[in-house]
Design brief:
Radius of gyration: 22 Å
Distance between the termini: 70 Å
Bound molecules: nicotinamide-adenine-dinucleotide
CATH superfamily of the largest domain: Aldehyde Dehydrogenase, Chain A, domain 1
CATH topology of the largest domain: Aldehyde Dehydrogenase, Chain A, domain 1
Shape: globular
CATH class of the largest domain: Alpha Beta
Helix content: 25-40%
Largest sheet: 7 strands, mixed
Structural class: alpha/beta
Number of helices: 16
Amino acid sequence: MTIETRTSIVWDYGRAPESTDHIRLKDRYGLFIDGEFSEPADGTYVPTTNPATEEPIAEVAYGGPDDVAAAVEAARAAAPKWAALKDLERAKYLFRIARLIQEHARELAVVETMDGGKPLRESRDVDIPLAAAHFFHYAGWADKLRYGVNAREVSPLGVVGQIVPWNFPLLMAAWKLAPALACGNVAILKPAETTPLTALLLAEICQEAELPPGVVAILTGNGDTGAALVREKDINKIAFTGSTAVGRDIQAALAGRAVGLTLELGGKSANIVFEDAALDQAVEGIVNGIFFNQGHVCCAGSRLLIQESVRDEVIAKLWQRMGRLRVGDPLDKNTDVGAINSAEQLSRIEALVAAGESEGAVRQTIECELPERGYWFAPTLFTDVSPAHRIAVEEIFGPVVSVLTFRTQAEAIEKANNSRYGLAAGIWTDKGAKAFEVASALQAGVVWQNTYNHFDPTAAFGGYKESGFGREGGPAGLRPYLQVVR
Ligand code: NAD
């Protein structure tokens, strides 16, 4: 068999669904305030549904202003004792939470996939292990805080409100809670409305870890709950991950108040392929860059910049590789691309793809059988994209990649930086010096070389321009949760 025939084999896999009989979900979840689950003041519960089946999974409380006030009061009461705890004792709680996430990993992965639509392969191999790793990492920092800030004396900020999106629900909760608690703050976390379940399981983990009541609150609800948390008077900091529009609203609401703020917002990241790159490896990176988590990734490599001399070859290889992506049941262990998170997100993707077509870009969408129920969008490639097209400018947040080309290194840099965002970028080249030169000219918080979407709790993550400010991860992630005393 020649290499060509061998690599052109398309494997036909049988179904390999993960079982769901081991998960223990309640029918209904209240708000986690002061270490206990309690009824929301106005009694509102809303079902959270599985986007792959449209079936309800559990009912979840929506917190209103009274609940927000109760959570802040409980947090304020818990704050002095938590801050005064010996650093090593605080670390022990974080280590315990990390280990419990590992113990419950299988259940957390299945629930994450059911609630959000992401392939089980990703929740099992990326989201949950990385969430545990963040708690481990910051547990290690709890007694070394001053070394994270140039050996200055530091103290916690107090009560922090944290608002997260739906694309990496447990992982974003870990990115927020682990550094905040390690630094001696108490936290109120507001999960996204479509994916509250793993945060609620994390609340149960906090109970199992015997975390003192009030140190963590999980306040489920919608944008109104988040807005009420931002406007609560007795709060010291807001950390937000989500869309640029909401980030702007939060910044305006906090203007003139002595409240700390970090914003992790949207992106339109450039993935740059130079002609000297290992092209097959680059194609894998392009696929991982845009189709990982259905493209619901803030740093997704959604603008693919290919050097003109290798454009046709890269596009041909990419299109062939895309044809092998398995789209469908997220609980199937062989699935590469799962369900779109919600009907609203699906219509946003459809609207932008329609704009791409009407503005004259050329669309290719892979042929595949999509389940009858649920929200789906097949992996899509746009060529002949001009830098002014909406699909080259706006965040699609779906499995859609827009291809642009460049001739020289300078043009690649100029096109990559031609965005109001600046979250991440990828550089594919065989030349180390070129990679460093390009990376230092890019206005992007994270630049990957010959890889993409590679996350590590020890590395800082955050944006430039309208992608936000502040860093999460590594020692840089401590700074937003500390004040320097001397
Ligand atoms: P979103 O901004 O609509 O919602 C994010 C969170 O904010 C949710 O919990 C939501 O309930 C809450 N919220 C909504 N309105 C609010 C308000 N007025 N005040 C306070 N809170 C409010 O974003 P989304 O659609 O859930 O997530 C997608 C966006 O998140 C994308 O733009 C993506 O790029 C971004 N994101 C960024 C990062 C990053 O690290 N930079 C990571 C993941 C996602």
